[in-house]
Amino acid sequence: MNFKQNRNDVDALLAAHFSGFGKQVQGWRKEFDLHQCVKIGNFIPHALQADLHKEARRLLAEKAERRNVKIASTGNTPRSYRSVGRDAIRATGLVTPALFHSDTLLMLLSIIAGEKIYRIPYAPEEYIINNQCGPGDTHGWHWDDYTFALIHVVESPNPLSGGRIEYIQNVIWDKMNSEKCVKKALENRLITSMHVQSGETYFMKTNTTLHRISPLTEDSNRIAIIYSFASEDDLTDPSIEHATMEVIYPTDTAAHLVQSLGKEIS
Length: 266
Ligand SMILES: [Fe+2]
What we know:
This protein is α+β, with helices and mostly antiparallel strands.
C-alpha cells in the first residue's frame, strides 16, 4: 500500500484492524498484568507495516547519528547504536508520528495496560528509531522515564547473534544509587530473554522493568521504533527527569527547552 495518508487515515486503518482482535485482547491484558511485557505478532496491520518499515529505513539512511555513550543515570550502562531522534522523524515522517497520535492505538494500549494511557508531555521522547548493526552494539540496562513503551521491530537480528530483549520486572529505579540498583537486580533476579521477529511489536511497563537489548555478537541488524507513553501519575510526577535523553539527543532536548522557555515568557 502506498500511503499518502494523514493521521485520520492511519487511525481508521488501525480501528478496522484492531476490531478483528476480539478475545485476544483479554489474553494480552492478562499477560501484561503478569509479566509487565507482552509481545503481539500482528499489532500493526501489514498494509501499514510496509510504509512504516520503508520510512524507518529512509530516515536511518538520511538522518541517523551514531551514539557511543555510557549513561550515568542508569548505572553507567552503554548505548551503542545508530539513532534518529524525534524531531528528524517528525520533520519528514508520516506513518511513524501518525501511530503516536492515533487515539485508537491509545485506547487499545489502555485496555492492555488496565489503566488509561496518555501521550507523554515531553516531545523529544515521543518516538525514536534505533539501529544496532555491528558487534558490541547494545542498548544497555536501563529504565525509561515514562511508564509505558510500545516497540515495533522493523528488522530483527539473526537470533544466534544477540540483540535480544532482556528484562527483569518489578525493579524500582533508585536514581540516587542506580549502578548499585542495576548490579543488585542482575545478581539476584531471573532475567527474561526474548527474541522479537521483524514485524512484531511489544508493549512494556518500562519505568519499573529493568531492560536492555543485549549486545550483537557479530554483524547483524536490528531496527526498532520506540514509542513512549505516560500513565496518569506521570503527568504530574515531578521526579521524572530526562537526563538520558539529554545525553543521547542533545539537539532535540535543547530545542524543546528553548520552546518551553519561550512559551513561559510569552
Ligand atoms: Fe527502554
